[in-house]
Give the backbone structure.
Amino acid sequence: MLEYLLIISATLAVGLGAGYFIRKSIAEAKIASAEVAANKILEEANLEASAIKREKHLEAKEEAHRLRHEIERESKERRADLQRVERRLQHKEENLDRKISSLERKEEELRKKEEETQRIQDKIQSLYRQQLAELERVSALTRDEARDILLKRAREEITHEMAIMVKEVETQAKVEADKKAREVVTMAIQKCAADHVTEATVSVVSLPNDEMKGRIIGREGRNIRTLETLTGIDLIIDDTPEAVILSGFDPIRREIARIALEKLISDGRIHPARIEEIVEKTRKEVEVLIKEEGERATFETGVHGIHPELVLLLGKLRYRTSYGQNVLQHSIEVAHLAATMAAELGLDINFAKRAGLLHDIGKALDHETEGSHVLTGAEIAKRYKETADIINAIEAHHGDIEFKTLEAVLIQSADAVSAARPGARRESLEVYIKRLEKLEQIADSFDGVDKSYAIHAGREIRIIVKPEKIDDYTSIQIARDIVKKIESDLEYPGQIKVTVIRETRAVDYAR
């Protein structure tokens, strides 16, 4: 057993030794082969690097050659450009030298001409002094005296020519202005459809029979007293058949009394309690009607944004008359006329409408306050926050203050057109005659006036002057002075034409 173990051990030892040597020889062979391969790779790499190095060296030489060629080409081009610039500069220098030479020659010529001109001026001045001295000797006048005479004559001629020119310009301007104004006003009147017929407040109530008078009076007059107390209107029951006259200064109260009395007559129940009920109901109806009339006026004219209190005041104008003309209809008409004229002239149409509608707003309260309707209207407009231009148009529409806008001038013109339309207003005969007499008195007060005649219902005055005292140009001045006097001293609707006539008549007799 021990022997077997020894044999096996020896065999194993021999096998292990043999295997070691075999592996060692194999490894050495592989290492030698790897070294050969590595040496071969190194040789190939060295060869390839040498080739690349030669190739890059050749490329660098070629690039250097190309760059040298481009640099030489650019240098040639730059040298050519510099040569062209040098030739151009040389050419300009030559031109400049020629111009300088030409200028020097011209300066020399000018210097000679100046010397010649100075000699001529000296000679002229000497001759002028000699002629002036000779003229003074011949005319026996000094230089200042002759100048004064010439200036005086020239001034007289210029003044005469200026007067002629002024007259021609004024005539032409008046013709053009009248033509344009007539076109604008005519267009405005044609486009305006406002009713200008007088609407007078009714103050007479018709009765179905005379027995109704007794029922209106009532027992011991209690019915009529109640009606008068509640309305503030006097009822006049006289011998007028089938009619009762209402008397009172307030047109709205008079309207309330008229409507209430008509309702009582239609109802037939006339006693204090019923009168009080009807009057109160009628007062509310009239207030509603006033508001509706104001709203109708604003709607018809297209004016919006007016304070509600101003709308009520506009409605009250429905019951207000001026010279027999209904004030509300007049205000609507003025608004339409002013707006149409503003459109023709390129002005603010909305502003013209608003100012035209409100220009007589003071007449709604002028019987309740002191002062003219112009001041009252301006105060009302200020109270309800109207603009300064609207207030100025209200204040200036009768010429009391200066106009601040062109639209304000149109308001005055539209007011005059509306008031001057045929049938728009009524005046008493006495007032009409007094105005005509005053118009002729103003014209007769001027020196040189022979006769004066108010014609065309006071729309024109013709003045005949004395020809021996007044010349043609003074006639123009007299006409202008009379116009100013009429504007300051006389109140009148519309406008007044002043015509001054000067004529010379030569009369002789053949015997």
